[in-house]
Protein: M23 family metallopeptidase
Organism: Sphingomonas glacialis
Amino acid sequence: MFLRNDHGLDQAGGTAAISFGRALVPNAELTRFEKLRAAALHIDWVPDLGSRIGSLDWWRGAATCAALCATAIAIAPPITRPILGAIPAPLTGADRDEARAQAILPLALGANSGRHMASNDLVVPLAEAPERPVEDRTATVGQGDSFGDMLQRAGVSERDAQNAVALIASSVPLGDLKPGTQVPMTLGRRPNRSVARPLEALALRARFDEQLTLKRVGDQLVLTKQSIAIDTTPLRIQGPVGSSLYRSARAAGVPVKLVETYIKAIASKFAIGRVGRDDSYDLVIERKRAATGETQLGNLLFAGLDHGAAKTQLVQWTDGTWYEASGQSERQGMFTMPVSMARITSSFGMRFHPLLGFTRMHKGIDIGTAWGTPIHAPADGTITFAGRSGGYGNFIKLSHGGGIETHYGHLSRFATRPGQHVSRGEVIGYSGNSGMSTGPHLHWEVLRGGVAVNPRGFSFSSVATLSGEQLRAFKAKVASLLAVKPGA
């Protein structure tokens, strides 16, 4: 099949050397320049110099880079001679004064820049600066501060301060307000500067679960109470001991005092020196969460330690004692001396009484002290008696549980009262010379099961066990604490 064109008949299809627009010219018919151009188009002049190092393409790329750098250096202006630029002529006369008036100059250099315009007849001086119609202020409750005085220092009138104190005191004792409590308030417009501003509104977080609001309605302040929903779910924190039990617990967010309480509780059942980095701690803490977002942590409720296969689980009961999950509490230790710098003047055992004039059993030891020396509890316990007792004079009985009691005689005065729980090292009284005594000293007795023993070097081991209704309530508390999810 043939097609007609301007050059005659050409074969259609298959092998015809025809292109769109012009016919393809055989390679033999190309000029030398066209051949060189076609070959140059197939050469990669900028290859990747990081690959195929040493190949023909790499050397070609290196030569291209060198040629470009040489060309840039050759056509660059010389750097030995500076390039001159035009410098504006300095301003003088009126032009300089105009430019200076619009400039900002350092005051330290005596600057007098800026435009100054004197006042004319249109300027009316103000007799006094206007006040804001309403002011928002915040007062803070201080240590031992009076709530009324605090309001007056914040600018509240004496009458409004008295009314506010009376309204708030009817809802919450003012002495219960914690130092540092923020009291935002709004003060209204006053007729002149010689009087205090009236109190328009006041907000006070009286308790963790109650918000008090004072608002002015007409000429009276009205108190509004708002209860805040509180969630009392305890907080449980668990984690590995790592390099330090104290640091690990603090890093998990446990307050310092609770960490110290936890370590003290665990140390009563388990040697702290045996705690390893692979062990894990477990704490359950009292927590209150308000609907407004605040969180308040309380006492430590549960102290646990996983030491390999051994587990220590302690729960504090209502008597302040840490019991194991089984309901038992075992304590071991030694009593410390009740006074510092002790000097024993009479030992335990048979002795000649200096006042009665015959030999009899001395059921304790006498410690020579200056009059009024503080007496410290040698261990945790409860005061069962504090009063006058015959020849002992002012006398204290301290029960430590497990049938162990300590007695203190010839005191000058008391620092505790019956029924009070005291901790180790707490001051319970002061030495004196009351009763049958030849001079200021402390008579100290230790009784186990009602029988006097030598207080020097006394070590004790007591086991307390809950039973009956207390044991059932204790078991229920343990189950509820163990059911708390960590971090919930």
